[in-house]
Amino acid sequence: DAGHTAVTYLGGPDYWLAQRRRLTAFTTACAARGITGTVLGPLEPDFVAAGRNAADELVDAGTTAVVAYNDQAAVGLMQGFAEHGLRAGRDYSVVGFDDSWLCEMTSPPLTTVHLAFDEAGVAAIDLLCDVLDGKTTPDAGPVELGTHLVVRSSTVTAGLPVG
Fold this sequence. Notes:
The chain is α/β, with parallel strands linked by helices. Helices cover about 35% and strands about 20% of the residues. The protein contains 4 helices and 6 strands, in the order βαβαβαββαβ. Strand 3, helix 3 and strand 4 form a beta-alpha-beta unit. The two termini are about 20 Å apart.
């Protein structure tokens, strides 16, 4: 909705279910909006370092917005951009995922997709109890949890003057 037409997804490890679902959601959303979506990754679990290194590839790639697999990768990306004299929220939009405690500690504060970890914990315990009580099976499928975007200062509307 901010007008970006070239967006990159900075992906997590392929063997993580969350990575596969986030990648699918990213590609579906880009296709639905006619946005050029590229994928960089998969990243390995040293997310901050991987994000920092990804900035080197993205500086001249034409991307104006990046959605990172998680907040740690987004923080590393912001650090990498800073090493190039660039700033999230001014030169690029950067969005993380998880809404971890890091988000408000960065400069600028990180826009992120909020996950309700307490809700996830309750759902996991409920599912475990249902399996143990014979009400369901372990392969019953995923439990859908709510998310929402928490907009902070690491995003900018495309086409705004830099500075």
